[in-house]
TrEMBL record:
Top-level taxon in the UniProt lineage: Bacteria
Protein name: MarR family transcriptional regulator
Organism phylogeny: Bacteria, Bacillati, Bacillota, Tissierellia, Tissierellales
Organism name: Tissierella simiarum
Keywords carried by this UniProt record: DNA-binding, Transcription, Transcription regulation
Span of domain HTH marR-type: 1-142
CDD domains from the UniProt entry: HTH_ARSR
């Protein structure tokens, strides 16, 4: 098997493992009631100031229609609340409720644990190897971003 074939096989395996391991964490405990998109929307609202549908859709690479659906559900679940600014009565913004902050912090904790585990793996590589890995990941991320942008264009 060529190096390129091995790389493809291992990359596919990596993405499948990430998918497999990522979903169960979001189907336990506090996350049981919420989709991954809802949790990421909560995370986005917790991380950014003056979040609205447009800002969330850009941050999560999702359509405004999808974000509108998600925020309506989060509003009905009492995880977020909406507000308007005194100088802008037209635009609707979102902020987390106490229950929303609870989900936000639980999600952040999962990410913190993952990042520590990843750092332990990264430390096994020397600087040159890390530079090559960074280059590879940048190329893959650019490819995926282009695919997402193309899908977004076709949905609008």
């Amino acid at each position: 098997m060529s190096n390129l074939d091995q790389l493809l096989l291992n990359f596919k395996s990596l993405t499948e493992n990430i998918d497999y391991l990522g979903v169960p964490d979001h189907n336990r405990g506090i996350f049981k009631k919420y989709s991954l998109s809802q949790v990421h929307c909560i995370d986005c609202i917790g991380n950014l100031e003056d979040t609205n549908v447009t800002k969330i859709s850009e941050e999560l690479n999702m359509t405004r229609g999808a974000i509108s659906k998600i925020t309506k559900k989060l509003l009905s679940e009492g995880l977020i609340k909406q507000y308007k600014k005194p100088d802008n009565k037209k635009e609707i913004f979102f902020e987390l409720t106490d229950n929303g902050w609870e989900v936000y912090h639980a999600h952040r904790e999962l990410h913190d644990i993952s990042e520590l585990e990843y750092m332990n793996i990264f430390k096994k590589f020397n600087d040159n190897e890390i530079e090559i890995i960074i280059s590879f990941l940048k190329e893959m991320n650019n490819y995926f971003k282009e695919q997402i942008e193309e899908i977004s264009k076709n949905e609008n």
